[in-house]
Write a structure and sequence with these properties.
Helix content: 10-25%
Number of domains: 1
GO biological process, one term: response to stress
GO molecular function: lysozyme activity
Structural class: alpha/beta
Shape: globular
Largest sheet: 4 strands, mixed
Keywords: Signal
InterPro entries: GH, GH25_Enzymes, Glyco_hydro_25
Family: Belongs to the glycosyl hydrolase 25 family.
Mean pLDDT: 90
Low-confidence stretches: none
Strand order of the largest sheet: 1-2-3-6
Distance between the termini: 27 Å
């Protein structure tokens, strides 16, 4: 899929979390040039968690592109235009 998207010049990225990436790929590090959007539900809209702890780093990425920082499966529901929505952040 990555090869096909690249060949067709289609923009794409990878969405994952450290635990998912490591479990599914064995922490493959050859895709770290692709934009990465990671999930860490700490309710904080910045990348400090990624930069300050190896716990959240994966796949050889140095700089993430986006972060999903709030998931509405958490105890406190948040709505956007009356829709139950996850919160994402991008600088």
């Amino acid at each position: 899929m990555i090869n096909t998207l690249t060949e067709k010049n289609q923009p794409f990225g990878i969405y994952s979390s450290a635990s998912q990436w490591k479990e599914i790929t064995g922490n493959v590090q050859k895709y770290n040039e692709i934009p990465m959007w990671y999930a860490h539900y700490d309710k904080i809209n910045n990348f400090n968690d990624y930069y300050n702890s190896n716990k959240y780093k994966f796949g050889g990425w140095i700089n993430p592109t986006m972060k999903q920082y709030y998931n509405n499966t958490l105890e406190e529901k948040r709505y956007v235009c009356r829709v139950n929505a996850d919160y994402n952040w991008r600088p």
